[in-house]
Each structure stands twice: as C-alpha cells, then as structure tokens.
Write a structure and sequence with these properties.
It is built from three helices and eight strands, in the order ββαββααββββ. By secondary structure, it is α+β, with helices and mostly antiparallel strands.
C-alpha cells in the first residue's frame, strides 16, 4: 500500500518536518522490520534527512541553496522561470529510505525527514511506502 501525505507549503522555499507524519503512518501499519521509502513525485520539490534540533540549520541550507542556485540568472532558458527550483530538487533528491526496527523508524538522535519545497507556495503530495515484515 502507498500512503499519500498532503502537504500545503507556505513559502517559495521551505523545509517542512514530516517525520511525525511518517511515524503516524508506520504506527498504523503492522510493519516491525523493514524500510520506509519517502518519495516526492514533483520536479521542483525534494525529500531529505537532516538535523531537527536547531531551526537555523534549515535556514542555512535554504540560504546556501539560494546562493548556489539563484532564482534569477541571465543564462537560465527554462520558459517557466523556475530553473532554480529544478536544480535545488535535483540536489536534495526525490526520495529517502529509512530503516524500520522494532516498529520504529531508525533515525539518528538529531535527524528528521524533511519535505523540501522550492517552487511554492503549493499544495503538494509526498508518497510513503513501507516494506517489511509484521
């Protein structure tokens, strides 16, 4: 079964912690050992795992991505005008895989799963699939 998370983004660039949503879905499943695959079916959004203790990390990541991939550049050719969003999505990647052990996500002490918006605000979806044994 594939689960769908509905995500409403509020900014052009933001990282939304979806860890609690994935954990809620896992609790509803019978999976005890296996993996969780978290996937963004969008070309201008991504999924990453990073620190959740200090919100300045998210700020710094988004700031640096904006410096590397500025929204406007004289050599961009993409007609929609969102080349930076595509480049940021390529950099973060479209999916993450997390181990499941004893019915829980195996994340480091400071880690969280983030849905990364790069062309918002928008209504997005994020897909989650659990594979494993009950």
């Amino acid at each position: 079964m594939i689960h769908t998370l509905d995500i409403l983004t509020r900014k052009r660039d933001e990282m939304i912690d979806i860890t609690h949503l994935v954990k809620d879905l896992l609790r509803q499943s019978n999976i005890r050992e296996g993996i969780a695959v978290i996937y963004s079916p969008h070309t201008t959004a991504g999924v990453t795992i990073n620190e959740n203790a200090d919100p300045d990390v998210r700020h710094d990541v988004l700031m640096r991505l904006d410096e590397v991939y500025p929204w406007e550049h004289e050599k961009y050719r993409h007609a929609e005008g969102n080349s930076a969003a595509h480049l940021k999505a390529i950099t973060t990647g479209s999916s993450q895989t997390v181990l499941i052990h004893d019915g829980k996500l195996v994340l480091g002490r400071w880690q969280a799963i983030y849905f990364c918006e790069f062309d918002g605000p928008r209504r997005r979806t994020c897909l989650v699939k659990f594979l494993g044994d009950s």
